[in-house]
Design a protein that fits this description.
Number of helices of chain A: 17
Largest interface: A-B, 74 and 74 residues
Structural class of chain A: alpha/beta
Oligomer: homodimer
Shape of chain A: globular
Order of helices and strands of chain A: HHHEHEHEHEHEHHHHEHEHEHEHEHH
Helix content of chain A: 40-55%
């Protein structure tokens, strides 16, 4: 009996538990495009990501992994420059990466076509081979997460993160992650084996009126994605932000009635700052939780879930998993159907 | 008797009412650096903005005005790549713009020094001549907003927006805004003359548990800044985001008990989408408000404040003003001191 069968109470939870398999399959699939990805190195000097929703949070990871691990300037683009203002930019020697699990978001197809007209090399990360987006770009990178039925993206999110890490590795021309990518599926299993710890965070958040999720650097993507999941599935105000930004204003809204969740790798230079902010949030009366981090961060929080045994640059691929579990538990606890949040659809067309 | 004298109940409100003067003075000051700004055109092919807090919202405006009005690729940088991960990037032919009203944020000084080592041309927008940041860059662009005493930035925010518009105009080599920049101080006066309308939004927001502020394209900067002000001064969970992003998840947290405020220019291609989202938020049970927009947007909302008579690309310089007034009223209504939000300081050093 798999853990999935034991714990399954929604499609979302089933899909969360599929991730060791979907990540392993995606790793194999990525090996097939490695040669084509490596050839990109000669054509591009910078990377620009375009996406919406959870895919936009994949893009946040992409910017850090490209800049910090590859040393290539990377940033997030504004889709409206292309699709609303129809402004042409000089994007020669730029890799434009669009991300969409469905590959059916017309806005991203339009961005990819615009980018090509602007001189960019275009790449798409999508879970759907043969989709409009896959067909629109120079190089489709297709993940193998299978069909995702729950509206909140889970397994397609982590598969897309893995694909972005593979793109970064190819751009580096080396092996900046060593063997860490191969360990990702097993680390997903480890995190799922501790699902009960993640579920125990839900009743704490349920007593609060809003949730602030903090990350920094690599873990920022995890923070904003967990916040998005909670807003989407639980109907609770939630914000994901950099611990550095928290001090520049939003700390004013952290007090009794706020849950503060810190997402951190087991090590790395952001850990002291994140720990200091957790302590400060606690002093402001907030309930504090953490996913990952070290013993010091865990000691600073009311409740904690152990993170992955992965380097800081790779940990975000799976470190969202306890946040996904928390979201699914919290949604049911608050009387929501996690698979079908009110007012949202699986494929969103931007108006 | 000036409107300031009539309405003053906090330093924040006094400073809000100084804006016609501070913007007029800043306009004169900017004329002095126009020639030096124009010479930048030959040296740079792209722009990268770095900032925190309200200054980061100025940067959001900067990216749209540079890309849409000048046609030069622009993006927001991640300070941690420089200051936490110490990663060198190739920033030749890149204009790196740091923004800090105090010019004393060490993080921004470090970013400016890093950018110069990476080959960038460096520019700072600051309200403090002779500050560490002004001295660290190739070209300081100093606004003339006077000393700002209230913790929430108001007059330094709009002065910095005006400076960014002047930088964009210089990079364009033409006059993309026509005479609109000259009209900014007067339009600030017009918005302040309607302060009572803005104040009337406060009791509506006060009945809600959280605030979502929507913008798109140029007005996104206004939306995120108003949300930041409300979090900072009123201690209420508030999120500013693109109406396009709202549909990709956060709409799940918009329901009874949520206030949705739309920031829009009087015209432009984003207006139909913003109006559609206001209607959708209303159907979800939210209280809906707007600043700016046209008769159709106002009709879709429970309450409205007229915006500025300025083109879409310039309107954001002053269109935050009704949001500043709303924040100041709401803070007092909720029993907070708008000048000194709990736990926040005027000059923030990032940990």
């Amino acid at each position: 009996m798999t853990p999935a069968a034991v714990a399954a109470t929604s499609r979302m939870r089933e899909e969360i538990f599929e991730q060791p398999d979907t990540l392993a399959r995606t790793l194999e699939r990525l090996a097939e495009v490695r040669q084509r990805l490596r050839r990109l190195r000669n054509d591009v000097d910078r990377v620009l990501f375009f996406a919406r929703g959870s895919s936009d949070n994949v893009a946040i990871y992409g910017r850090y992994v490209c800049e910090v691990m590859v040393g290539i300037p990377a940033a997030l683009g504004a889709p409206s420059v292309a699709t609303v203002y129809h402004r042409s930019l000089d994007l020669r020697r730029t890799l434009v990466v669009t991300i969409s699990q469905s590959g059916q978001t017309q806005e991203m197809v339009d961005v990819a076509n615009w980018a090509r007209r602007c001189g960019a090399t275009t790449l798409a990360v999508t879970n759907t081979a043969g989709s409009a987006l896959a067909d629109a770009v120079d190089l489709p990178v297709v993940t193998d997460a299978g069909v995702e039925r729950a509206v909140p993206a889970t397994k397609t999110f982590t598969a897309a993160l893995l694909a972005i890490a593979a793109v970064a590795e190819a751009l580096s021309g080396g092996r900046p992650f060593g063997d860490a990518l191969q360990a990702v599926p097993e680390q997903a299993s480890e995190l799922l084996a501790r699902a009960a710890d993640a579920d125990r965070l839900a009743p704490i958040v349920a007593t609060c009126a809003s949730l602030t999720v903090l990350g920094r650097g690599f873990s920022l993507a995890t923070a904003v994605e967990i916040a998005l999941k909670v807003e989407e599935a639980c109907g609770m105000p939630a914000a994901g932000l950099s611990s550095a930004d928290l001090q520049h204003g939003p700390l004013g809204a952290v007090h009794e009635g706020t849950a503060v969740l810190v997402a951190a790798a087991a090590g790395g230079p952001t850990l002291p700052g994140l720990t200091a902010l957790a302590t400060r949030a606690s002093q402001s009366g907030a309930r504090t939780l953490c996913i990952g981090g070290d013993a010091r961060l865990r000691a600073a929080c009311d409740a904690a879930v152990m993170g992955a045994d992965l380097p800081e640059a790779i940990a975000p691929i799976v470190e969202v998993i306890p946040g996904q579990l928390l979201t699914e538990s919290l949604a049911r606890m608050l009387g929501h159907d996690p698979d079908a949040p009110r007012g949202l659809t699986k494929v969103t067309q931007t108006t």
